[in-house]
Write a structure and sequence with these properties.
It is a single chain. By secondary structure, the chain is an alpha+beta fold. It has 5 domains: 226 residues, Rhopdopsin 7-helix transmembrane proteins (Up-down Bundle); 73 residues, no CATH class; 143 residues, GAF domain (Beta-Lactamase); 67 residues; 165 residues, Histidine kinase-like ATPase, C-terminal domain (Heat Shock Protein 90, 2-Layer Sandwich). The protein contains 22 helices and 15 strands.
Amino acid sequence: MTPTLNAGSWAGVDGWVFLLAAFGAMLLAVWLLDRRRRRRGSTSLTMIVGLCLNALWCLLLSVDGRGGLVAGLGEVARNLGWLVVVLNLFARDNRDETVAPVRPVLAALALVELFQIALAILFTRFGKIPAAAEMIVQLSDLFHLLMTTGALVLVHNLYVGAVAGRRAADRWNCMALALIWGYDLNYYTIAYLGHSVPEDLVMLRGLAQGVAVVLFGLGERSGSHARFSPSRAVAFQSLVLLVIGVYLILMVGAAQSVAWLGGNASALVQLGFAFATTVAIIAAVPSSRLRRWLNVVLAKHFFQHRYDYRAEWLRFTRTIGRAGPNAQPLHARLVQAVADITDSARGLLLVPGEGGDLVLAARWQWPTLEVPASALPQDAVAFLERRGFIVDLDQIRAGTDFEGEAAIVPGWMIAEEAIWVLVPLIHFDRLVGLVVLGRPSVARELDWEDFDLLRVVGQQLASYLAEHGSQVALLEASRFDEFNRRMAFVMHDIKNLASQLALLARNAERHADNPAFRSDMLVTLRNAADKLNALIARLSRYGSGTVQAIEQIDAADVIRGIAHRANAALGRDQVLAADVRPCRILAGREPLEQVLSHLVQNALDATDNGLGVVLNTRVDGAEGVIEVIDSGCGMSADFVRNRLFTPFVSTKSGGFGIGAFEARELVKAMRGKLEVESREGLGSRFSVRLPLAPSEPDTSISSSRTSPESPMKVTRA
């Protein structure tokens, strides 16, 4: 069924044009058949059949007056033939796996084209009724528009998805198909909107068929093949283009249906329909969730592999290598690099603590998740190191347990529905980190390709993390070397001064005539010498990991003295020894006072609003605990993990940066541990844990650093 034609100056010429196009198509088909018989080319039989059907249709148009039933059926056969040619171009080199997702689209377009036969039957029965005939012709035009739009999208993908070396070979065939269906798209658009087609366009349609035959001939002379391998971006754009085409056709059909209803309500219905569709578009198009859903559908149904590995690797490299003042810390970039692969919007990084369990090291866009001090126990670390298993928490929640991973995942992770996947970072069979991914906006089940990619990415990130740790250790070692060299000069000078003062004291004892003066001089000089020698002894102990003269002391007495001295210096009662209970521990009084004095001073510096600093003592099992609590500015998990106990890193102007480090080392030397709990904006809690004294008095215990380093716990209070 062809739209009504307007008479014009080209009457009669279009028949000759179609006849020449039919002759050219048949001539090319015979030539290709002869080449195929002589095996001089790789021409497929579908191309020959398509040319024959195109020639038959052109011949029918030149004879049947361009409007008969037979010509309409001939056009159906021609379009079906060219769709088979497109399928053959996709399937070259036996790439059935690549072609498989295209076949449903081709089948849908073929079905739409077959509807023309049903419309032709209806037209023969009801064509004498003007209203029915007009409706059938309009529906026919709509089906033609839908088929040509989808066919053009397939031709577009066929060309841009071909390998660069073979794309030139299929250029001519794609140009020919684009010319045939591109002209038909405009032809039927004008026919639908204007209810008729100018005679000039009919003649040009025949000319387009002739030019397409010439392009087919050029394409067959090249004799090369193409391979379908479109990029994700091209496929996404093509799908959007197809959706837009279908949407436009539906809009035109809906508007025409409303117009056919007639009546006073027609304009109101059209306005309401336009308003509703506009609101729907505005709401859906900017949606990131819709875009992610389209990407998932494309990866699932149109590609052999879910990921575009080249694009993923480039993005991964850019994320890790991002630098500049506004760049995130390395630990946060590690989380982002993994989250971008799975479209997760947030994540965490857990790293091994000093006790072997996993502690929080960094957050990426997840500030609200509460993480315990020990995020993952040591047995979970051993399992992940041994198995290298990527844990899907949705499967555990559903009751699936593949290799015993359900037993090692802590309850707080299972209870938090937003936690989705755990990706271990393993370097030389050692777990250096664990990435915790949040659930993406479009949830899906992970498959083998996800696990393979995440495992490889985890190994790569583990190497970055291990290298970063090695660089930090080397930098710290170099700073210690510099510090030791400087302290050697200081100690040498002080030692000389102490020797001179001691010599002066001995001479005074021997030669001074005034007993009172001699006594005062001796006291003064001896005190100075003792202080200098004590300073030398303390400087000499830096880095030795030992504390002399460990004894049984009452922690309550120590913190009362610390609070008294601090309040006396401040001139007000700001340090409070609140919950003080008898607690006899094994420690060195001088180093313990040094540790607590430093922690209290830091708490006072962090509390700039005049709030109090609270000191507590308590017994916890076989340990005595001294707590220093403030309600100051608090610290982030990243700061506690990477900067708080790092030597020579200070946030204070002119600070040396070894106070917190020295405090932790002194506590370790007393066979204790220093724990930190902090949250930004709420304050911090430092807990000094030391062994309790035995029931029998024992004050002759020497200290040596024999126990392993205790873990520094980092939680959010």
